[in-house]
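Attaching the record inline, Q. Sequence:
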Amino acid sequence: MTELAIHAVGLAKSFGALKAVRDLSIDVPTGAIYGFLGPNGSGKTTTIRMLCGLLTPDAGEGTCLGFDIRRDTVKIKAEVGYMPQRFGLYEDLTIRENLEFIARLYDMPNPRETARVAIARLGLGDRAQQLAGHLSGGWKQRLALASCVLHKPRLLLLDEPTAGVDPKARREFWDEIHGLASGGITVLVSTHYMDEAERCHLIGYISQGRLLAHGTVEEVVRAAGISAWRITGPAVGRLTARIKTLPGIEMAARFGSELHVSGVDAALIEKSLEGIKGEAGLEIERVPPSLEDVFIHTMDVATQEPQ
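Structure, as predicted:
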């Protein structure tokens, strides 16, 4: 993947006194699934909208699918499928009617046949005559995706597309996304789910409008320099509050009967944990750090930096 679907340098966007995006640069290879991570209000949606021509940057330059993001917004929109956070189709129309309407908007030669093919591909056949407003979250998600790919875009921009849907629907959605990427479509997706981020080819972490980390999941985790341990045993519950205060431990979280701790100073954490090894029944094991560890660590560091 050497050809770039997106190339942007120094993007910035403010809304009054709010600096939503600051000096953000990003490269996304053609055919890649690129995951945007970051807390609410971090600038993910604003960045996506600038890249697809819905917002004009205050500063910076870039291209999307070879088109200038300032001058060629009409051409970009014709090649992009955009799925916003909120369901944006007509709830008083059926699945078929919605898709036929979208096909006509894109001036497709045979809207009825185009809708039929999309319905079959995404398994919507049994619900084709159902009103969109009566669909569950997972089926609305499928319909929204069908409308995004109706005109055969080269780039999909998905803004937290799986929020509020069940795990089975999320997995099926991601299987479809990987199928589209295998066909050459580039996908840019924002998400809060770590398991979804791990299914992306590349990820970028945004906080307070800045891109703080970028690369494969393995590269981002390695670059963070975090070490982690798993603590188990009958005394874990009683000792959790104390363990959280030990020198070097930046994060501590319970997962059932286990306590997961992590931080950047591995030597200091090991020394701290040596002091509790004698507690009754405790077992302490070093484990690989998770993407969630990196996410929380990066967010904490970013909030401590001066703006």
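The radius of gyration is 23 Å. Residues 104 and 295 are 42 Å apart (CA to CA).

More tomorrow.
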